[in-house]
Specification:
Distance between the termini: 66 Å
Strand content: 15-25%
CATH class of the largest domain: Alpha Beta
Number of domains: 3
Number of helices: 14
CATH superfamily of the largest domain: HUPs
Largest sheet: 6 strands, mixed
Radius of gyration: 33 Å
Strand order of the largest sheet: 3-2-1-4-6-5
Length: 475
């Protein structure tokens, strides 16, 4: 199959472009980008594409000005609009301390993104080819990577709203150079590609040629590996996305992601790792920046049974929680602040914004509230008002809090009451304690009643309190 049909086949199979698309083509002047532009130019007549050329002069080499003139001249011959950006990368490197290749790439994409916006499109065609893919996979192997890293570059991916499209990923450099030769297309060779101070050049010039001595088809093998890993990675990503939607709950207010420890431990270890990385990615921690050791330490923290509660900082902004059977990941976590409110005795509501609940009170001469009899018993309390000291306060817990629990001898630490009830550590500071004027804890809504102010046959004034869990989490 001739090269143009191979490229068109990739475009159709990968759904890279649609008829009538507007496409910015990144053209450096080298054989790869020259071949890409020529191929897309020929196909544009069949596909009704509108092309625009983007070229960046990095001011790196003496030939930069000549290459820019060549690209603009060729653009005029083809009748394609062209935008040339001049970026002082050496100065940018001096200011930021970034390495030359990263700096050039970053500044190049910024300019090309502006060209695409000007042209009214988000599609940017790049000339990365199969040899580039093999080098990328080899570099990741050397540095250490997981299965997803072996995918290498993808035929299409998003970068800050820009769709980066690589129609030549299945084409080898030799084919592109042959294409240029057969059609007498002029191109420039970047001399910096021979400088071994860059890691990619070392891989291209030294590592791959050496390994090719053991396998003459080593580049093809690396490319085939990335091709197979892409399909397997796509399958795994669909599986983990489906699992995420079934298993993970998202708090719309805080963005916290939570799931069950028991369900997690039943997953295959490969899915466990991918689920952790996916959650971190949703919390804006780039999955590519999360190393294996971090993922593995979180996975082991989830499945180990030594501790029912655990808190870890994954990064400066993301915190991990293990709270009994619940695992949580949250971004920009801030602990609950102490609160203290007077509880009025007149019929009405006290809204506790910290917990997202209401406390309703009612004083009567009847032991039963006519409208509250069907309310869950743990969510309502009836007290002997005359055996309470006023004022009644609703507050958060304090260090050293103790309570004389109904049905137990002596007192018990509130902390231990929460532990027995398996209340998550973060939620303990959100739970309201109802305290009388003598400092006695009368009631912990939903959890325990105290021995104080119990109603008897002699009670004449009954204080009814009930809790409404509007928005309350975890109780």
């Amino acid at each position: 199959m001739e090269l143009i049909r191979k490229v068109e086949h990739t475009i159709i199979e990968e759904r890279l472009f649609e008829p009538g698309d507007r496409i910015v083509v990144a053209v450096s002047g080298g054989p790869d980008s020259v071949a890409l532009l020529h191929l897309l130019f020929l196909l544009s007549k069949e596909w009704d594409w509108q092309l625009m050329i983007g070229h960046v002069n990095h001011l790196f080499r003496e030939e930069s000005e000549e290459e820019a003139r060549f690209v603009t001249g060729w653009a005029r011959e083809l009748g394609i609009p062209c935008e040339v950006g001049v970026v002082d990368v050496p100065r940018y490197i001096e200011q930021t301390g970034d390495n030359p290749q990263n700096a050039a790439r970053q500044q190049r994409y910024l300019f090309l993104a502006s060209v695409a916006k000007q042209f009214g499109t988000d599609k940017l065609a790049l000339a990365h080819h199969a040899d580039d893919q093999a080098e990328t996979v080899m570099m990741r192997l050397i540095r250490g990577t997981g299965p997803a890293g072996l995918v290498g570059m993808t035929a299409s991916n998003k970068l800050d709203g820009l769709q980066l499209i690589r129609p030549l990923l299945r084409i080898y450099k030799e084919e592109l150079e042959q294409y240029c030769h057969e059609r007498e297309l002029t191109y420039y060779v970047d001399g910096s590609n021979l400088e071994r101070k860059y890691f990619r050049n070392q891989v291209r010039l030294d590592v791959i040629p050496k390994l090719s001595e053991y396998n003459p088809n080593f580049v093809e093998s690396l490319h085939r590996l990335s091709f197979m890993m892409k399909d397997e990675d796509d399958f795994m990503e669909k599986e983990i996305q489906s699992l995420y939607e079934r298993m993970v709950r998202t708090d719309t207010a805080t963005g916290e992601r939570t799931f069950s420890t028991k369900v997690f431990t039943r997953l295959h270890v490969a899915l466990q790792r991918r689920l952790i990385k996916l959650i971190l990615n949703y919390l804006s921690l780039c999955a590519d920046s999360v190393d294996f050791a971090t993922v593995e330490s979180l996975r082991e923290a989830i499945i180990q049974r030594r501790s029912s509660s655990l808190t870890l900082d994954v990064s400066d902004q993301i915190r991990f929680f293990k709270e009994y059977d619940r695992i949580g990941f949250v971004r920009n976590y801030s602990p609950a602040r102490p609160f203290r409110y007077p509880l009025g005795l007149e019929q009405g509501d006290l809204y506790l914004a910290e917990a997202g609940i209401y406390l309703e009170t009612f004083v009567s001469e009847a032991r039963e509230h006519p409208d509250w009899s069907s309310w869950p018993a743990e969510d309502r309390a009836v007290l002997d008002l005359d055996r309470l000291e006023l004022p009644i306060i609703v507050r958060s817990r304090q260090d050293g809090d103790r309570m004389q629990v109904l049905g137990l001898n002596g007192s018990k630490k509130v902390k231990d009451i929460f532990i027995d009830a398996k209340i998550a550590h973060r939620e303990r500071n959100l739970l309201p304690l109802v305290v009388d004027g003598a400092g006695r804890i009368i009631w912990i809504p939903g959890i325990k009643r105290s021995v104080h102010a119990r109603v008897t046959d002699r009670t004449t004034r009954f204080l009814h309190i009930r809790v409404s869990r509007k928005g309350m989490q975890g109780l």
